[in-house]
Amino acid sequence: MSVEEMIRSRGSAVADGLENTQSDMWPRILPFAAFMGFIAINSFLGGSEANGNQGTFDLWSYPIKTLVVASLLMFFWSRFHELKGSIFVNWQEALVTIIVGLGVYALWVRMDWPWAIQGELSDYNPFVAGSTLGLVLAGIRIFGASVIVPVMEELFWRSFLIRYVVNANFETVRLGTFTLGSFAATVVLFGLEHNLWLAGMMAGICYNGLLYWTGRLWPCIIAHAITNLVLGIHVLATGEWYWW
């Protein structure tokens, strides 16, 4: 093979690699982008009413958002190679995952210091729509928060972005690869995604740690799901809607 042919072959391989990387990026980015888009629209429209009543769009956007994000995840499901393995490989992994999920919840509800909050808390109360419809909306909220959101967020933060910071061809980076830059970037940005930014960073540290320990995504998803499920139960039991 001539030098020219070698260069042409190498260039073709690089181009193919970049094309494959881009095609693998979007299934992990689009569900997250859709979710954040709804949050941005809700913020633009004002969310909750000034008199304390639930804003109409705020009340109904969550079911729509959940449906849109769930549909995107289902459409791209076959592309998520990191989810094809077992949820847990042994009981130790399951136990640690449960402890992490519960631990993040226990810390989260104690980190609502005024200086650790950005913007206004959403204060989502589904029961302003009535008792019966409120139960339906509450059920959708818990389902979305504990099933859809953990899959969507973990695919974006701890499958895509944490590896993309290491190498733009992110799928060549092993899940659970640690670098200080990727760790810091995902922790800070994950925290800033939430109104409770410090609690968000704490959760990001815990879920990242689980990723580094297991080298797999399912434990992160399950821990995240446990956190959100127990938080949802806490909200319904106490009426502290601002956690939602």
TrEMBL record:
GO BP field: proteolysis
CAAX prenyl protease 2/Lysostaphin resistance protein A-like domain span = 141-230
Q: Which residues form a coiled coil?
A: none
Q: Which UniProt keywords apply?
A: Hydrolase, Membrane, Protease, Transmembrane, Transmembrane helix
User: Per the UniProt record, which residue ranges are transmembrane?
Assistant: 29-47, 59-77, 89-108, 128-151, 172-190, 196-214, 221-243
Query: Under the GO molecular function aspect, what terms does this record hold?
Result: peptidase activity
- Tell me the NCBIfam families matching this sequence: pepcterm_CAAX (TIGR03008)
Listed name of the protein:
CAAX prenyl protease-related protein
Say which species the protein is native to.
Candidatus Nitronereus thalassa
